Amino acid sequence: MRLTIRHFPLHRIAAAVLALSGGAIGTAQAQTESGAPAAGAIQDAGVVTVSARRRPENLQDVPVSVTAFGGDQLSKQGTPDITALALSIPNTTLKASRATNSTLTAFIRGVGQQDPLAGFEAGVGIYLDDIYLARPQAAVTDIYDVERIEVLRGPQGTLYGRNTIGGAVKYVTRKLGSKTDIRARVTLGDYSQREAVLTASTPISDAVRVGGSIARFKRDGYGRNLVTGAHNYDKDMTAARLSAEFTPTPELFIRLAGDATQDDSSPRNGHRVTVGRTSGAQILSNVYDTRANLARALGHEQEVKAHGWSALLEYTVSPQLSVKSVTAARRDKSYAPIDFDSLQMVDFEVPALYKNKQFSQEFQLTYTGDKVQGVAGVYYIDANAFNIFDTVLAGAFPSSTYTLGDIDTKAWAVFADANYKVSDALSFSLGGRYTADKREASVLRQIYLGLNGTPGMGTPNAVLFRTDTDFTHGELEREDKKFTPKVGLAYKASASQNIYASWARGFKGGGFDPRMNVLGTKISNATARAGFLPETIDTLELGLKSSYNNNRILTNIALFDSKYKDVQIPGSVEVDTNGDGRPDSFAGVTTNAGKAKIRGIELEASARVSNAFSVTGMVSHINAEYTQFLTSQLVGGVPALVNVASERYFQNTPKNSANLRATYDMALPMMGRGGTFSVSGNASYKDETSQFEYASVLDQPAYTLYDLSLTWTSADNKIRAGLHGKNLGDQRYRTGGYVFPNLGKEGVLTAFYGAPRTVSATLEYRF
């Protein structure tokens, strides 16, 4: 494997991280199960526990690339939501999807999915405890009431399912304690930020415990809508979680849980980076300001609602054998008014509605013996993803296009993963998963005259011009079956050196593009009914996990080489629907690009330099390139497939990333309570990032973010006060956008940005 890391501004960060381990890099960022802070975990690596292989294991022993963040650590750093974690995780991008506040776009090692429409799977699995969240809507949630968050990199299909070919992100919530516990957190910050979280739990008897959390997150916008006066990039979110735990016998544990989230934030509208083509509208000076005029979808304000429930049963048959059942159901509904052109006039508007629901059942059998440890089980999911939207488009042929996508998915799987200890030093692992994935879809696309919308979106008298696509359930149907194996070796060279090698195959099922335009893109009904194919990835990984100086330094290094086949590329293209030679609409075209190779290196480290001073850091590099990317082009007047791989890029996958955090703790009595005052500074670097598979002016150049946190924690851990500054350099960096230069009268070149410099103060009290 040949890797070349080019020079970048944070080369000194890389050198500092390398120096921590003499060349072997890693990190152990976690919290003990009892809630102890991560700093203590660095001194005693044995208490850093993760469940990456669906069973509790020491972070430094598990042969998987995983980074864990403890709840106490996230609190001390003032981490706002899951997207902020990507700054310190190798080869990982987590962000709010374009034009949304709480839909998640996730990429790990080049694999992910940007478009959250029905029919497209994420590629990075999101889990709430053991529950797979099938859709990305409402997945960008503020962090509260968590024990830890784990991020697993590389294919995790054996234990986590068909759509974790890039990796998995796991929220692990706290189990309820044996004593009454009440905690409150209040945050105030600029942009009128005000937040409050209240968490409480108590035992009712020796066998019953109940608890819950309620949270309110509110903030004004970073910018304004200059047309309506509304905030842009604001936050208005409410969340709650309830749980009850039962231990009727020492062998049986039952947990019932429910959660709900409502996001009433204003629509997130983009910033035009070009002058209006016909209106001459100038580029606004504040990238968070907008002139968008669309504020409602289906006559409804922007709103996202999500809720779910789960039932967990764990029964210990013997000290070696246990069984688990996880039953869960979830629903979400999003009204999303999207103004593509971000101008006052009606030019390119897309009011949309997304609805998702799922039911899942999983049974697991876990065995932990002296020589053999493993997990086996069965899994079933029944899910529906539904979206409707209008495309209101001005131009030579003013029209409103109604698009409906209704996708049913039923999938089941059987899986097993076992580890055999050949000796105290050498162990061998073998796993596999067989998945059957069945999908049915309805797709309807109709064009109506004028710019007033369609009957399906609230305009009953609209005049139908033409139906381009009309498939009902039964006409679009496919079933994909796949066996995904995994093999691995681990060798404990010494008590502090763990070497591992693994090979794993990942699989993501095929499907149907819910925006397909059979007439406009001139695809046959047979091709449309076939849909797009599954994609697979084969990854070889070599890793070294080490500890030094009585576990005061923990290091990880991983090298990986992936072969990616039938890569699913959903995209939107301009189309001519009336035959006048000019594009007057757009449609979805999802292709299986062909082949790609992805190679990279990930280096992480965490060191307790002294009792007061600790440092963590990471450096990562990835070479992700297409080797085959076939598109249909006219060659000599005849349609032909042309390989344009040299002109295509991996989106949301910067070649180089780095992070360095230094923390200094000192004893500082305050209010007679004693305690610890901590200063924590953080620098994060991301290389140039492509927003699409092709070069674009919206691509983000390399940038660096700086954070600083000052916290005081009382000696009895009852009080914590913090002051947190994020993006102190006030860097403007693009996270997504839309490019349709020929549609509408004005053309579309619109960008979305990450948060500017923010400062907040937090006070936590544990009663």
UniProtKB/TrEMBL annotation:
Under the heading PROSITE patterns, the entry gives: TONB_DEPENDENT_REC_2, TONB_DEPENDENT_REC_3
Domain TonB-dependent receptor-like beta-barrel per the UniProt entry, residue ranges = 272-728
* Keywords tagged on the record: Cell outer membrane, Ion transport, Iron, Iron transport, Membrane, Receptor, Signal, TonB box, Transmembrane, Transmembrane beta strand, Transport
Motif mapping: TonB C-terminal box: 750-767
Q: Which residues form the TonB-dependent receptor plug domain?
A: 59-168
Q: How does it sit in the membrane?
A: Multi-pass membrane protein
| Annotated signal peptide | 1-30
Query: Where found in the cell?
Result: Cell outer membrane
Give a yes or no for keyword Transport in this entry. Answer: yes
Give the matching PANTHER family. FERRICHROME IRON RECEPTOR-RELATED, TONB-DEPENDENT OUTER MEMBRANE RECEPTOR
| Predominant location category | membrane
Task: State the family it belongs to.
Answer: Belongs to the TonB-dependent receptor family.
Quote the protein name from its UniProt record: TonB-dependent receptor
